[in-house]
Amino acid sequence: MTEIVIARPDDTWPAQYQKTAQVISGLLGELAQRIDHVGSTSVPGLPAKDIIDIQVTVGTEPDLDDVAERMAAADWELRPPRRDHPVPGLPADDIQWVKRMLVEPMYRRRVNLHIRVAGRANQRYALLFRDYLRSHPETARAYAVFKEQAAALRLGIGDYTDLKDPVCDLIYLPAEEWAARTGWTI
């Protein structure tokens, strides 16, 4: 079992994202509608696993497999899951949560690459979650405390994720209210 390690915030995470995003953009071209830095490393000052989460947004569901195949040809490894967890209060339709996930080629900077379809609930979730935490540093600090305490439980990655998902949802649900109030859009 791999131990979950929460690292101190690293001011170079955005630059590391930019470098990796350029490589991904070069591999995918117009298949990628957008490439975004998501997850905890995208929130300034937030402790995180030292893994850069990147979301590639594609236009259609068949594009998910096209991107996965193109990345696999460049030695990225396709991994489960093939969907995100449904969020209470959001559409339960499986189509809203479909994704592909890949990890970096061996001996490269650690990256989780999430491929999601534009306009789907899971694509919006990652971006709104990030922007809400960026705009609410107190919430980000409380989330950091949770992550550090969860990591101290020495869970495997699957159990850690299962524990973390509902906590993220508790953050996300008021983020939807914030988005409506402020006019936030993707």
UniProtKB/TrEMBL annotation:
InterPro entries: GrpB/CoaE, NT_sf. Pfam families: GrpB. Transmembrane segments: none annotated. PANTHER family: GRPB DOMAIN PROTEIN (AFU_ORTHOLOGUE AFUA_1G01530), GRPB FAMILY PROTEIN. This is GrpB family protein.
